[in-house]
Design goal:
109 residues, 4-stranded antiparallel beta sheet, mainly beta, 10 strands, 53% strand
Amino acid sequence: LITEEPGPVLAMYNDSVELICKATGHPTPVIEWYRLSVETNVSTLEEYSIELPSSAFIEKTITNTTETSILIIDPVDYDDFGYYVCVASLSSDKFVYARDCCDSDSESG
């Protein structure tokens, strides 16, 4: 079960962005991040999945029955806008939360 979802993100060129996803369950859920080329539903996630930005990295913390995953994009580039999705898997169940990222509050840089 996803207990903390990524919030709305508005970023400017060269900003640093953090998307946080936290999931709790037994056994401890596994969180994966996807970047999508279009808004879609969970059944077509992999079909529309594209690479995370080259400036992105993931920090994970696992405690007892909770995993916290932070997708960090630093620095944000103009090509980084889009739909970012965290998927928490618990056995055969998947819980999904999607969030637009880096919607254009652009600044020439």
